[in-house]
Amino acid sequence: MEKAITGLRLAFENTKRKPYRTAALICITALSAAVLFASFILSASLKGGINGFTNRLGADLMIVPEGYETQVTDVLLSGEPNYFYMDKSIEDTVRAIPGVQKVSGQFYLTSLSESCCDFPVQIIGFDPETDFIVTPWADSQIHEGSGTVFAGYNVNVTQNEVMFFSQKHTVQARLSKTGSGMDNAIYADLQTLQHIFDDAKQKGFGFISDGDTNTKTSVLFVKLLPDAKADSTALKIKSAVPGVQVIKGGSFIATLSEKISAFLIFPRVLVILFLLITVFTLSIVFSLIVNERNREYSILRVLGADASMLKKLIFEEAFIIGITGSVTGVFLSALIILPFNTLIAETLSLPFALSSPAVIVLFAVLTIMISVLSCVISAVCAAVKVSRQKVVFK
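Below the sequence we write its predicted structure tokens.
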């Protein structure tokens, strides 16, 4: 039984007649769709990362040794292991300053790569009694064990345990994802951290940082009273504690947001450029196709096809190219971005929280719709041209 000749089938056969040209148009569309899809995911993931980091930071002020603002930024944003110290007595001094509600210190201990893991790992000590940064983001499931050990979201944990220097430690909980360097660290209470350091030292393992948790601290996180001003409190701290640098949490987040916004300009411009190139290229090709198929369209006119049917035929060819190219582009882009999102985050050195599967599917659908619409728009001139052509036989 012969298949009925429909407009869509005829459009499909027309695209098959020139396979190389059709393949080239699909490639252009696929490239445009891939860039658009990647831009959607990149933008949403960076925004999600900054939101997660903002919520997780929870501090109005951060106090570090003078000259170490860059180092603490590397630890928090990209998880790059680092160490720096100041006198722990500063914590009590800061706590007594008017306007300060809470103060909690963290101690950064950096292991050598050959000591415990396949890569240098940042071990962060914190005080559970004063902490308001780490504990609120622990999963509700708490496992019994000596000491307090939390694993960042990206840290591999086997059977609720992590091993340091041949010594197993029970992980009480995994921390929620932030999309920042906080996801790559191990958090332990100061007593456990000191035990890890002393145990490693006895076994001959080395650290590139000091392990004196009793007299030193790396960073102090400060939460202010509701009516306290960050600027004035920061000045009071600098006056009371010389040799430190006070970083305002709001300014830190604002600077980070500006950096992300500046970074996102490039992919957005690239998307617009590729969409314009796609529409322009396809418009030229479809116009050439109309001239090339003048005889074919004349035959269709004689067989009863009116102007609207011919226009529909052109749009259906554009739709076939658009849907094929956009689906291919989205698939290839996802094949690159999704498996390597952790590597992308490390390369960017910015908070990067990959969007949920539902959001990614939504981006894929949106990308396909925009790409197909671009292809259909590019066929408008050709469709108008073919509708005005007279019946010509040569």
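The longest helix spans residues 249-292.
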